[in-house]
Amino acid sequence: MSMTITKQIALWVAWGCVALGGMLIAWQIIAPANANATPLLVPTPGVLAEADVSVDAAATATPVADVVVYISGAVNKPGVYKVAASARVADVVVLAGGLRADADYAAVNLAAHISDATHIQVQSVGAATTRAPVESGPTTVAVNSASVEELTALPGIGPALAARIVEYRTAHGVFTTMDDLGAVPGIGPAMQAKLAPLLRFDS
Fold it and tell me: If one looks up domain 141-200 in CATH, what number appears?
């Protein structure tokens, strides 16, 4: 009876060896065919989430354009400032240290929009625009009575030519037209055209 058990064990061992050998042979046949296969990489959920967030942030980001403005006048810190394009005059005034005590609040629109290269000038109370004085009387020169100095003030007339005009006037009498003035040596048609609106021929 012990011999029968021994034979059965030996038979099982033999079948196991055959099965193992068959598996080895099958692996040798299948493995070379898959040796060059590229594995499929599947990103983890965390990586996908980060990628999506980065793409969305880049797609929805809107650059904020700055503008440069100059503020002067009745502010505490006049100068050049960079502000957002959506800023108002009030924002620039704040950057400039606020309005001075003598600022004319009614003359500045704090709610106004601004644009690049804007000049905001804050006036003081009582400040008036400087105007050149208006001269009374005629603005032309009386060629028949003008001195050498007065004639020299005219464009294109130097001291020598002014002296010749006075000498000719003394020798030949007063000028009545531009043609008479053209008889003075050195005064040609071009000079006559330039002087015509600047002279008058009072007797």
Answer: 1.10.150.320
